């Protein structure tokens, strides 16, 4: 590699620096190699040039097979994986809980339990917290697992295939059910319905509408404020949905574009190589931070909405 | 329209990106409901029970430690008190022993003194008795000697009665008191 010269380690350099300079050298060298090999003119692939290839195909849900009226596609596969992993891990850990914690998994699950119970008890009274703690905890763990398995490349691309030792294998892809708006929307609808139900049960139908109004508002401005409050109540549903969906979809799109797709679209392999470090950084950022953060936000907002439904403004 | 859109890769596929897939909605609802049901029925109660049990154990352990510490403090206090008592008793015993020893010593000294005095007294009495006996003996000897000497001088034997009378007279004239005093002074 031409970049090898840049990676020549100086005496007394720390290991971390050596690795950093080596990677940097390989990256710069790679750019040079790509420019030398392919030049700077575009080499669009035929499928890209003709518009057959679309970068959003990653998120298309093609029906794999049907059982009666029930469709199976990769979204369903990811849902089943999510529920399998969630129930498997949680049941496994809950059956092996020790008085003295024996592994990190137990500590993690206990920490998760304390965290979600804290969400419930801090935002609701005791009765409501007992009633809705399972929902909040399940939302958290289910969304977290769904997000996390979305960063594992799996051979699920039904459109593209590659051949390995004669076997036609679907191309590897990263996909998450959260990238389809249906997943967060139905969960947000459940939360919205429960919130309204609890509010109406606690205040009565008229009382609930009144409880949406902020205190101290009088006069002709009341209808305007009331309209805004009703709107904001429905916007909770929208924001809950869009926050999770858009974060995951944008994250996956960014990883895909930075991880090489942009280079394919413009027909410049050097662009793919150039952007690869950014793709890796975004991947790590999404997988480590966003996956857990979005699950956390969804769970805690559920607790807050449920808590505020039964309390007066 | 559709043919034109197909030349724009992203725009052509926009619809499925933002349209909720009803099938996925139903699947999500079912799968989530199953998760919620199972987690709520069997998993969360078990974790909760385990955490409560641990908290209970921790509380009990802290209580037990507290009790043990109190007991230890009590024991230490008792021990110190007893040690103090023992020290006091030891001091008392020592003082008593010293007193007893002193008393014993005094008595022994007094007894020795009195025995010594008795012995001296006895010796004195013995000497006196010996002296008296010796004096009596001497008297007898002197009387016999005087009789013998007188016989020789007078060439005449007096009757025994006369002799005794004469000797007694002579002896009475002699002063033995001086001798007796000298014997006592010994």
What secondary-structure arrangement, pairings included, does this model have?
The complex is a heterodimer of chains A (313) and B (186).
Chain A lengths: L14 H24 L7 H4 L15 E3 L2 E3 L1 H22 L8 H20 L2 H24 L4 E11 L2 E7 L8 H22 L1 H7 L10 H45 L2 H41 L4
Antiparallel strand pairs in A: 1-2, 3-4
Helix pairs in contact in A: 1-9, 3-5, 4-5, 4-9, 5-9, 6-7, 6-8, 6-9, 8-9
Chain B lengths: L1 H4 L3 H4 L1 H5 L3 H133 L5 H14 L3 H9 L1
Helix pairs in contact in B: 4-5, 4-6
Proportion in helices of chain A: 55-70%
Calculate the mean pLDDT score of chain A and round it. Answer: 84
- What separation lies between the terminal Cα atoms of chain A? 67 Å
- The coarse overall form of chain B would be rod-shaped
* Count of alpha/pi helices of chain B: 6
Largest interface: A-B, 50 and 41 residues
Query: How do the SSEs of chain A run, as a string of H and E?
Result: HHEEHHHEEHHHH
Structural class of chain B: mainly alpha
Total number of strands of chain A: 4
Oligomer: heterodimer
| Separation, N- and C-terminal Cα atoms of chain B | 171 Å
Average pLDDT score of chain B: 83
The major pleated sheet of chain B works out as: none
Share in helix of chain B: over 70%
Element order of chain B: H for helix, E for strand: HHHHHH
Task: Give a short synopsis of this structure.
With 313 residues, chain A is mainly alpha-helical. Chain A is 67% helix and 8% strand. In chain A, helix 6 packs parallel to helix 9 and helix 8 packs antiparallel against helix 9.
Write a structural description.
The complex is a heterodimer of chains A (313) and B (186). Chain A is mostly helical. Chain A folds into two domains: 39 residues; 260 residues, no CATH class. Chain A is built from nine helices and four strands, in the order ααββαααββαααα. A two-stranded antiparallel sheet of chain A has the order 1-2. In chain A, strands 3-4 form a two-stranded antiparallel ribbon. Chain A is globular. The relative contact order of chain A is 0.12. Chain B is mainly α and 186 residues long. Chain B has one domain. Chain B has six helices and no strands. In chain B, helix 4 crosses helix 5. Chain B starts with a helix and ends with a helix. Chains A and B meet through helix 3, helix 4, helix 5 and helix 6 of A and helix 2, helix 3 and helix 4 of B.
